[in-house]
Amino acid sequence: MYLDDLEILTVEEACEALKIGRNAIYRLLNSGKLKGYRNGRHWRIPREALRQYILENAKLK
User: Fold this and answer.
1) What is the DSSP annotation of the chain?
2) φ and ψ at 13, to 5 degrees?
3) pTM > 0.90
4) What kind of architecture, by CATH, is found in domain 3-57?
5) Distance (Å, rounded) from C-alpha 20 to C-alpha 57?
6) What is the Cα–Cα distance from 21 to 15, expressed in whole angstroms?
7) How many angstroms separate the CA atoms of 24 and 33, rounded?
8) pLDDT of 22 above 90
9) To pair with 43 at 20 to 30 A between CA atoms, which of 9, 33, 50, 55?
10) Alpha carbon of 9 to those of 50, 53, 59, 60: distances in Å?
């Protein structure tokens, strides 16, 4: 996978995708439940990490 193909989301974009607030996203990132990295003071979340979080936490029967 090339880095050019990797889409990176901001906190605001991740909030919109998950339909949750900023505080909830920061809790997920700080706990490690949602993978991301800090670029200075700003968090960045790879789209694949968001996808993994959704799949791992989906309540599928």
Assistant:
1) --GGG--EE-HHHHHHHHT--HHHHHHHHHHTSS--EEETTEEEEEHHHHHHHHHHH----
2) -65, -40
3) no
4) Alpha-Beta Complex (3.90)
5) 14
6) 6
7) 11
8) yes
9) 55
10) 9, 14, 24, 26
